[in-house]
UniProtKB/TrEMBL annotation:
Residues 54-532 form the Carboxylesterase type B domain. The keyword Transferase does not apply. GO terms for molecular function: hydrolase activity. Pfam families: COesterase. Belongs to the type-B carboxylesterase/lipase family. This is Carboxylic ester hydrolase.
Amino acid sequence: MEAMTPAADAPRSSAISRRGLLTTTSLVGAAGLLDAHLAAATPSVTPTRGGVELVETASGWVRGRRTAGVSAFLGIPYGGPTGGANRFRPPTAPAPWRGVRDANRFGHIAPQPIPGARLDYTRLISWLDQPGGQDEDCLVLNVWTPRPGAARRPVLVSFHGGGFSTGSGNHQGFDGDPLARFGDVVVVTVNHRLGLLGFLHLADLGAPAEWASAGVNGMLDAVAALRWVRENIANFGGDPGNVTVFGQSGGGSKTSVLLAMPSAAGLVHRAAVQSGSTLTLANRESGTRNASRLLARLGLSTRRITELRDVPVEMLVAAQAGLEASTPPAQFTPVVDGVAIPRDPFSPTAPEVSRDVPMIISLTRDEATAFAADPELTEAGLLTAAGALAGADNAARVVAEYRDAYPQASPALLAARISTDSGVFVAARAQAERKAALGGAPAYLYLFTWPSPADPARWAATHGIDVALVFHNADAPITGDNAPRARQLADDLAGAWVRFARTGDPNGAGLPHWSPYAPDTRRTLVLGDTTTVESDPLRRFRLLWEELAG
């Protein structure tokens, strides 16, 4: 059987793993021996030889690399091409290939703008490090497994952050190796269409019928990835009947949306939403307005809408960036289209379709320090910021409440806490309460308060500080490059994730007893300088924002 040679759309990055665990050393000799073995064999997994691992998928064989007890398979296609004639169309199945496909390099990431704002934060989390190269044909995923074969390990599927417009599953913060090793689980990260290539609602502008799903295609990609997991993960040592979907920020939003999609029912058995509780989505009218603005920016009328297929992708990405930075900003996010997404994810209630899916829901104490435009904010600026969130008449009262609770905090940190509590905290609490009210599987809520050692006064417990820790990785600038407390928190969070993936209950060694969230007790795991469980830990501010909301 011939070895598959790199095609034009083959992954172009030479990056493999974040600790040098995988190499791009030529394995021609070993690969030839394995291909010869494969030609005479029929099993779905071949023995490891020289660090090379072969696994069969529904589309063909893939060659990964085994290092120090974990096998990695990178850039595996779970869908067909999404560029050219397939732009704005729903995902299709990957085309089968002959021979053995190399899976030692990351695949393409979705075309996306380069983040320019909040440069200090993007540098802190190395967000610009997205190996793989941008290309419209980006429906690929990565798998890390302790051992391919017959075992049935829990499967954890991560959807990346970056809202619905940036990021990838190739980012170093989502390296699945340490979590697979720590928990004896299979880890999957996913790339999918983003921005207007994944979420441009064209159905109400006279678009061709095959573009009817253009406003939700990025989420249909996510469902396609989960179907690939169901069909293929057993050969990688995973249990297709025990799949936990999770994500932070935009990944949490995607997880929230999946829980409301009928097409994802039965593909998600547990779910975790970190700093991404999403209650509502854009409606068709909003999506249509954004699409109309894009057409106008490109000089196209609705009569020429099919010409969108031929606009160079670089021009589309530039137009997206311009619209996102305009006033009012255009947001290319999933639309409640009434078909793939029939309702808002968690409004007014939790979705019945995922009643039996247990959840972990979380936030960090200082989410908004990541988005602060001015770390040297003045007291006057603080009042203005509070007024924008609470109304000008309530600004002084809100600032006084937070200043009383945090007398040593800078105006910038107070503004960040006001923003966090009025947005992310309100959404996380509402999601947990609505899930509890449904009366099905439980939800567990945690609050992360440990400040980043990178600059505790500025960043505090910022957005994303817990991401790498869930992957059992404390070796990042945001967590103090293996600070002792970070290592303990990595044990705590990764341990909770693994237990939750196995049983639906995160409780176990190292944690105080963590009860499911209930409106009468509001029990919350608090991860700070110590790990505790508290009832209603932000009660003062919960009551304040409930009152202001009327």
